[in-house]
Amino acid sequence: MINNDVLRSVRFMLKVDDAAIAALIKLGGGEVSREDVTAYLKRDDEPGYKVCDHRVMAYFLDGLIIQRRGKDESSPPRPPERSVTNNVVLKKLRVAFELKEDDLLGLMTASGFEVSKPELSALFRKPDHHNYRPAGDQFLRNFLKSLTARVRG
Hints:
The protein is mainly α.
């Protein structure tokens, strides 16, 4: 999924403005202006649209985790991911919203996208593991849709 789409979905889910998104990116260790965030949130056919790169998305997701769960002072900060895949988005949102395996299965069932426990665990493995499975765009869209319904009530 395109990083801009993920950013728009999470912004809608959390009911926040552009300044709050910029603050989350800063909290994660990045630096963007409010105007950059506004450009990221535009549709790709609108004038002023700007592509949200992997580095900015990684900072945003890390900032979301810190904002929702707090900063882990016991370990050194991890460098941001070079490439933010659908699997990385799933992992970071799972951590940020403190979702357990049963929560994830419930969310996917609620969205009409049935997934088994082994299929789900394959999405959270390291890419070099032999049981790793990349998350598709449709899976991530359904996950975001269902998580939005849960968060917004």
